[in-house]
Structure formats: C-alpha cells, structure tokens
Design brief:
six-stranded mixed β-sheet, alpha+beta, 11 strands, about 140 residues, three-stranded antiparallel β-sheet, about 15% helix
Length: about 140
C-alpha cells in the first residue's frame, strides 16, 4: 500500500512542476497564507483541503487560482482542529487530477477572537418606512459575513 501511494505521489509531482509549501501555524477560522513555486507550464488550479480522518470529502478553499501569483491569503473556514490535513492544487474541471500536494500539517482550534466575533455578530436592518427593525444573529459555528 505504501509503495502504491509513493508511486502515485511520484506521478503527480512528475506531471506538474508546481510545488506547494506545507502550511504551518494554521488555526481554524483564521486568515492564512498559501504559497507555492510556479513554473511556466502550470495551469489555473483550485485549492482543496483534505483530511480523510476528519471529513469524507475535500473542502474547496480557492477556485481559478492564477499559478503565477505564487501566494494568496484567505480566511480558512472553521474546521475541526487536528493533524493529518493536506492541501492539494487540483485541475479546475477535474478535481481528481492533482497537480501538487503538501505534506501533512495540523490546524489548531479557532482563536478566541475569531470565535467570539463570529458568535456575537449581528446585523440590524431598518425598513425603508421606518416602521421597524429586524436583527439577524448567526447561529453558533457559522461565520458572519
């Protein structure tokens, strides 16, 4: 089984010169940097977060990424803390075609400042006639926009 996985990893890296940097110090719900080393032959790709022991399917983080950028910053969705996460750069029209993959890394708990702002955020809307207000408060675990 290990030989089979190693062979697949070798084929993936041979098919694309794109090299992803393994993330460090990521925390659920925080702003994170994704960095990579592109080559002239790289195609537009999508980033997917995977952890087979925590969730069944990969989680899309960014679509139609321009490989020449070399990095992007985004807000990581709230995911369970733990180790064994990997990040994959995949073909935008066939997610089974993996251009590059990071090594395994961990994601820490949501920082308390992110958790408290997400749980206490609310939005108040005034009606155009001035007759009343509606306050929307997100449920726990959902990020406020």
């Amino acid at each position: 089984m290990l030989f089979k996985f190693s062979s697949i990893a070798a084929l993936v890296s041979a098919a694309s010169a794109l090299t992803l940097q393994t993330p460090t110090n990521w925390a659920s719900g925080s702003s994170v940097n994704l960095t990579w080393t592109p080559s002239a032959s790289d195609q537009t790709f999508s980033f997917e977060l995977s952890n087979p022991t925590i969730f069944n399917n990969a989680l899309g983080l960014a679509n139609n990424v321009d490989p020449t950028l070399g990095h992007i910053t985004l807000t990581l969705p709230i995911v369970p803390p733990g180790s064994g996460y990997t990040l994959q750069a995949v073909n935008i029209s066939d997610i089974n075609t993996v251009y590059a993959q990071t090594g395994s890394f961990a994601i820490a708990n949501t920082p308390s400042s992110v958790a408290s702002s997400a749980s206490s955020a609310s939005l108040t809307l005034a009606s155009s006639s001035g007759s009343g207000y509606v306050t929307l408060v997100p449920s726990r675990g959902l990020a406020a926009v």
